[in-house]
Design brief:
15% strand, 43% helix
């Protein structure tokens, strides 16, 4: 399947190095709102909705992780970026890993958060895809989002939880289901050793959706990888620990620019 033109937004100086932010399954580019202002002070920040999400198209047929990578690479072409820093969470992290493996010449540095190279739970993802098609994403929202945050954060910030549930419930049922199938069929384990770019892998210590052992495996396999684990953080760590995640991302990306 060829690339589709995803919906995107750009912030920051026109001539600055590009940072591409890739959203998680069940969210939109709005998930990056806590990070964009600080990043945009120094970078040209491109956020986008993964196909099947938000304002992006929902092309027919089954998707693969390479389809999502083709979309991201086409977006880099559209914004005129031969190279970029990649930041992705969950499904966005999977897209970033595969992009760095397929097109390492296009990637400077990379941060992947709360993600996996291989879940090993194919049937559960196929079951979720089936439920999205038959019951709708609204029927899944409370259960899925319930795994995204620690109980303490959810109790203290019901507004954030509510926004996430509303976003997921509003997604196109078929688009969400097709992206669940991407994860069901995805196995990036053989790619990791081939990724040459400096990579920061971020775990949420309380992440139930992508437990920390998944990030440990990624960090152990990528030659130039480092691992950071955030306590008091579950799956959507950039919303639960926004200042910490912003600082961690800037700390990893800025050295590349300081050397230029």
């Amino acid at each position: 399947m060829s690339a589709v033109a995803v919906s995107w937004t750009v912030d920051g100086p026109a001539g600055a190095p590009v940072v591409l932010l890739s959203n998680s399954l069940g969210t939109t580019r709005a998930m990056w709102q806590p990070q964009v202002p600080a990043l945009a002070e120094r970078y040209r920040v491109v956020t986008y909705d993964t196909r099947g999400h938000g304002a992006s198209p929902v092309p027919p047929g089954r998707y693969t992780i390479d389809d999502l990578v083709d979309d991201a690479a086409a977006l880099l072409d559209e914004v005129g970026a031969e190279r970029a820093h990649l930041v992705g969470l969950s499904l966005g992290g999977m897209t970033s890993l595969r992009l760095a493996a397929r097109h390492p010449e296009r990637v400077d540095r990379m941060v992947v958060l709360c993600t996996s190279a291989f879940y090993g739970t194919r049937e559960s993802w196929l079951d979720r895809a089936h439920r999205a098609r038959t019951e709708g994403t609204a029927a899944l929202a409370a259960t899925v989002v319930g795994r995204w945050f620690t109980s303490g954060f959810a109790a203290a910030h019901p507004d954030v939880v509510g926004r996430c549930e509303a976003t997921l419930a509003a997604l196109d049922d078929e688009g969400y289901a097709a992206c669940c199938e991407v994860i069901a069929d995805m196995d990036l384990r053989a790619d990791l050793a081939c990724i040459p770019v400096p990579t920061l892998v971020v775990s949420g210590a309380q992440d139930l959706a992508a437990p920390p052992e998944h990030q440990r495996a990624i960090a152990a396999a990528i030659p130039k990888a480092e691992l950071v684990t955030l306590d008091r953080a579950a799956h959507i760590a950039n919303l639960e620990r926004p200042l910490d995640v912003t600082g961690i991302v800037l700390g990893h990306l800025d050295p590349a620019e300081d050397q230029r």
